Design the sequence.
């Protein structure tokens, strides 16, 4: 296909992905109250339970809209991945195209594991840590929109980070990544993991470390998976 035809194909793939996300966002809006309660739950489990407040007229509406949008994107991941894979499919051989169902399933599982890890472990720990910093004579009242934004950011970040093994498999099959390359730059990956932990998480060392450690472990898993899916294993030993 000519270059402009490739751009047209990409445009339609992106358009279909956006339509999917928009439709799912509308559906999630219908369940925004339930989703809001799910996100509020970690704040009710710390000691003392977190008190939330609304400071602006449009806060609840914007918060529910943000929740619906993020939920729509997460639920739309299979379609987004499918559309991107179909865009790349003409350049893949028949054997590689068979990986599509596995890639989609693995992507969903990895993102879910990362999100659940953040929801049940990282978020309660981070909330308790920050709330304990307040002096005894100061009551913790948190704005609802800031609280929800904080939770969604942590969940999405951990979900994306847990996609590292899948990304390594895709790049390996495309010939852009090798286990030898990943082993060579392992020490740099260690430094980058802690830098990402500092950038993507709230500014406290404990939460940064709790993100950096999974990144390091996932990097090691990615090296192993890259080796398994490499077509030149004999050159990587």
Sequence:
């Amino acid at each position: 296909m000519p270059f402009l035809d490739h751009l047209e194909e990409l445009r339609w793939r992106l358009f279909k992905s956006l339509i999917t996300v928009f439709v799912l966002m509308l559906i999630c809006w219908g369940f925004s109250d339930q989703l809001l309660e799910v996100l509020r739950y970690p704040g009710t489990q710390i000691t003392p339970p977190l008190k939330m407040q609304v400071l602006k007229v449009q806060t609840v509406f914007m918060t529910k809209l943000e929740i619906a949008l993020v939920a729509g994107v997460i639920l739309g991941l299979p379609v987004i991945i499918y559309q991107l894979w179909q865009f790349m499919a003409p350049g893949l051989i028949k054997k590689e195209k068979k990986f599509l169902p596995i890639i989609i399933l693995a992507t969903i599982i990895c993102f879910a594991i990362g999100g659940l890890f953040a929801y049940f472990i990282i978020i309660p720990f981070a909330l308790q840590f920050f709330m304990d910093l307040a002096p005894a004579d100061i009551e913790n009242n948190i704005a609802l929109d800031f609280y929800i934004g904080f939770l969604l950011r942590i969940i999405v970040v951990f979900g994306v980070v847990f996609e590292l093994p899948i990304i390594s498999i895709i790049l390996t099959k495309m010939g852009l990544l090798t286990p030898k390359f990943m082993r060579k730059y392992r020490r740099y990956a260690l430094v980058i993991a802690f830098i990402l932990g500092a950038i993507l998480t709230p500014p406290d060392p404990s939460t940064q470390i709790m993100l950096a450690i999974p990144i390091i472990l996932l990097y090691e898993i990615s090296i192993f998976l890259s080796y398994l899916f490499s077509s030149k294993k004999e050159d990587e030993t």
Observations:
- The chain is about 80% helix and 5% strand.
- Residues 163-237 form one domain.
- Confidence is low (pLDDT under 50) at residues 233-237.
- The radius of gyration is 21 Å.
